[in-house]
């Protein structure tokens, strides 16, 4: 690294250690030309999550794009705005928590899909039809059937006698 004081091209690291919080490396450098000393910090660059698209192209993760695609599915659905915001925040958090430099667009789609299932069944089906590329009615029907069955099981669990539930009927809310 170039010396900030005299511009000499080759400075030496004389000390290198982690900062107390462990999120950066602090280096003391010395310039052999002017004997000046300075400090640099090395940190992980945050906020740069790359998305690998189906065709292999990469683009930086965009909250806006995630939001647009999700809102399209939620159009005219009775889901409060703050639930949608929390939902998007949760998806973004999960993606960054993966700790990977890049994720595939399918991984993101899967996360959104799983989340929408809880949030709003109609949005879920809409999103599935676009994202999973359900071009024919039959596969769309399968998604809907699957959802209906799950809701039926849910209802059965909700109305089952307490003792049956505690014995474990196979239906569970958790
Ligand atoms: Zn220097």
- Total separate domains: 2
Topology as a string of helices (H) and strands (E): EEEEEHHEHHHH
Low-confidence stretches: 168-174
- Widest β-sheet, arrangement of strands: 1-2-3
Annotation keywords:
single chain; 174 residues; alpha+beta; three-stranded antiparallel β-sheet; elongated; disordered C terminus; binds zinc ion
Care to describe what's here?
The protein is of the alpha+beta class. It starts with 11 loop residues before the first strand and ends in a 7-residue tail after the last helix. It has two domains: 12-43, no CATH class; 50-167. It contains six helices and six strands; from the N terminus they run E-E-E-E-E-H-H-E-H-H-H-H. A hairpin with a 6-residue loop joins strand 2 (24-30) and strand 3. It binds zinc ion. The site of zinc ion has 8 residues, from loops.
Give me the secondary-structure topology:
Blueprint: E1 12-18, E2 24-30, E3 37-43, E4 50-52, E5 58-60, H1 63-74, H2 81-97, E6 102-104, H3 105-119, H4 121-131, H5 137-159, H6 162-167
Parallel strand pairs: 4-6
Antiparallel strand pairs: 1-2, 2-3, 4-5
Helix pairs in contact: 1-4, 2-3, 3-4, 4-5
The protein binds zinc ion (ZN).
The site of zinc ion (ZN) has 8 residues, from loops.
